[in-house]
Amino acid sequence: MIQNIPEVKLGIVAVSRDCFPVTLSEKRRKAVVEECKRLGIDIFEAKTTVENENDVLKALDELKSADVNALVVYLGNFGPEGPETMLAQKFNGPSMFVAAAEETQENLFDGRGDAYCGMLNASYNIGLRKLNPYIPEYPVGDSSEVANMIAHFVDVARVVIGVKNLKIFSFGPRPQDFLACNAPIKPLYDLGIEIMENSELDLFEAFNNHKDDPRIPEIVKQMQDELGTGNKHPGILPKLAQYELTLMDWYEKYRGSCKFAIFANKCWPAFQTQFGFVPCYVNARLASKGIPVACEVDIYGALSEYIVTLATQLPATILDINNTVPKDMYEANKDKFKDYKPTDLFMGFHCGNTPICHMKYAEMRYQLIMHRLLEPDKEPDITRGTLEGAIKPGEITIFRLQSTADCLLRSYVAQGEVIDVDPRSFGGIGVFAIKEMGRFYRYVLIQKRFPHHTAVAFKHVGKVLFDAMKMLGVDDISFNQPANMLYKDENPFK
């Protein structure tokens, strides 16, 4: 069961400029609420309509009493730009500004609200107060259109709320061989994230303190039931269960003031020689619960995976943007690749950390690369613990949030799919297809210095992620949306 994500409690407050009829704003607000109910959106309707600063205080009291954590500021008419933006400024959570369209040509005297005009003044005052609310691409509509904009805002708000209430636990120094994982952590504090960095010894001590934990057999039974016939190394399950309990107890004990938490852990090569297994399957199981555990102390990778989980409310994974698709594989499966070019394709791979719900088939195996290094010519022992197999075909979105060396935040979003082609390799792996991936690879991933890890959402949520990054104040966002692909011979990802 997915957990570790916030519940969005929406509230809507109508605003009205005092020279316009307040009843117009209230009538339009009620119509929006009715449309939200029709779409299954739970939204609290504040009865205070904001015309002045005193109304702002009354509305905030209403919202607080209803435990609202995401606010829709609704311009039912022109609206008072000072009080309405003060409302968003004093509200403790993400906010959205949206405006009412005129309903009919038959009532453009007493029934005209001029909210189209009012959004311009609102935007100016938003700038004066240095606010960063969500404003839809075209933020003016009738009640049905506004309700659909609010539905999108729910997903965006969930990302913002989750990030603002997050703690990241890391274990071990970030690896020398993956300098990309050594990005500065100062921007995490700018986002409102707490971070608790620990040594591998802290983790090792906690793990050893869980030896013979009476809960281990129960976790082993869960693993056996989940793996079924894919349980190829049953002897390693007690150690994996001990490790899972270690992380979950740490999660409960050290979240402190934060509501949510994730992990970025050192996972090789000393991990295998000291702990006696690879942690991949446990990482997959925690990701299934909404608690990502990124490999190689990739703090921004863990955050990216969590953001994807917030956007979709589904388990996510972190993969390497790993290798090209061989030409003979492309030729042998042309019917499945449809109109994708070879440069649109790559293989997404990691040792074995993808949740089993996203696997076409899955088996408990051993990590081949580490086995070559740590126990060559021996039966696998300390390298057991991966969850391997082909990733299910279907929609995907790849995403990464990363700090540059000078502490700027950059992110990318690209949508595509996993193709139903046998990857014919090891690890948790799939054949990925993204339109214009070749140019995206060159002009975003390489040009903007992104590392090899990407978070994978098993759903198309590019617009949600793009809008959430804007609300979080990310400095540079690259999105492979179709509008960016009009000019074939130019770089569309500026």
Give the helix level as a range of percent. Answer: 25-40%
Largest sheet: 6 strands, antiparallel, barrel
Number of separate helices: 17
**Strand percentage, roughly?**
15-25%
Question: How many E-type strands?
Answer: 18
Rg over alpha carbons? 25 Å
Structural class: alpha/beta
Describe this structure in words.
This protein is an alpha/beta fold and 494 residues long. It folds into two domains: 10-163, Rossmann fold, CATH 3.40.50.10940; 173-479, L-fucose Isomerase, Chain A, domain 3 (Alpha-Beta Barrel), CATH 3.20.14. The chain is built from 17 helices and 18 strands. Strands 10-11-16-15-14-17 form a six-stranded antiparallel barrel. The protein is elongated and about 85 Å long. The two termini are 39 Å apart. It comes from Caldicellulosiruptor kronotskyensis (strain DSM 18902 / VKM B-2412 / 2002). Keywords: Carbohydrate metabolism, Isomerase.
